[in-house]
Amino acid sequence: MPEPTPAVTAAVLVIGDEILSGRTKDKNIGSIAERLTAIGIDLREVRVVPDVTEEIVASVNALRARYTYLFTTGGIGPTHDDITADSIAAAFGVGIGIDERARAMLLERHRPEDLNAARLRMARIPDGADLIPNPVSKAPGFSIGNVFVMAGVPQIMNAMLDAILPGLSQGVPVLSETIEAGKLPEGAFAGGLATIAAAHGSVSIGSYPSMTQEGFANRIVVRGREAEAVAAARAEIEALLAGLLR
Amino acid sequence: MPEPTPAVTAAVLVIGDEILSGRTKDKNIGSIAERLTAIGIDLREVRVVPDVTEEIVASVNALRARYTYLFTTGGIGPTHDDITADSIAAAFGVGIGIDERARAMLLERHRPEDLNAARLRMARIPDGADLIPNPVSKAPGFSIGNVFVMAGVPQIMNAMLDAILPGLSQGVPVLSETIEAGKLPEGAFAGGLATIAAAHGSVSIGSYPSMTQEGFANRIVVRGREAEAVAAARAEIEALLAGLLR
Asked: Which parts form a coiled-coil structure per UniProt (chains A, B) (predicted)?
């Protein structure tokens, strides 16, 4: 794949046993991918890890070192299995304690007498972190360094992204053109497509089969940051397919 | 999380730019997770990487060394962006070439005169690999060492898993009990739940909020391999919730 310069890159770390057991089906990866792509940030890697401190710490440190941004989802609730905040503090080697700003946010939802030890866990924030507001249920996420720590519930995760994205370095958005190849089999156009791909170094060309009730359907996607190059590749692909259908 | 012994563990590697761009929403992670869990294999990690050889090689080698099994999805079609088979060969340091068994499978679907260079790419199999049959569109997956290489189209991936799973070492299945906490907030039961979790080392207890049209709903899941321990933890959790509702 051609490398845009300077690229703004990202990784996602999904934290949670419930995704790995299959009990909960992740919906956040796809949403984050779409939203980052739309503002020109290249999502380069995703990992899903269990609720195990050492696994979270190792992945956070590997991914935050490698990409411009790291987004995590899950594990910031009030129960004993919510260990993300402590794991992030451990990854950064900083302390963690009750954050008064976070406590104030929780008090927008809970009466003081209901702010028990468990709920106060949601105000435990690593030292030096900034808070990410949660308009849905108040308990905040946080950012520290280039790491953004978000809730796992999709509605809350998306509300947190609403607050985060405007503040990020944005890249040049990728233009994406889809060419429907329909029932034309991949094996028929693959040779020509490889030639076109080789001739257009600044675009990436992918072929994506899917199964429909009528059998396979193929789609070709041209992606790139230079409009002329994308348009030129698209025109050549359309000519290739037209020639095969003739 | 308590560690069963001996555990049979697994990782999944999803290969494909289209997942990272958000254009295609992955459905395979959830299916594989469910099917492995059902036969007692613990899915411990998932990664999604782009169509870049070095990324695939690095992830394959990290994950196959660490877990009993590694399952990959995507990148085994006929087009230029399908680089999984070559990347797996590189990861294992073995050669790759046209496999006559794979060619014979392709000939079940294609006339000899239609088996062009692109389609023959789907018969390129790393040296020493076994084939995984593909009842849907014939082009096989393959296994080498503890790595199982499958298609990305969900219907084909699942058909390949049908062929793979009976041959694997299976673990003791995890028993999973779900207790509906309904609208009872996590913050109300989190303290008691932590005490119960600490007293039952052989089970893992998770609390999973979701948003419904009526607001938050919470579910508590108890997982473990010992029926008595799971039942005991469940009973204590039910008593905890009943006490809070009283």
From this structure: none
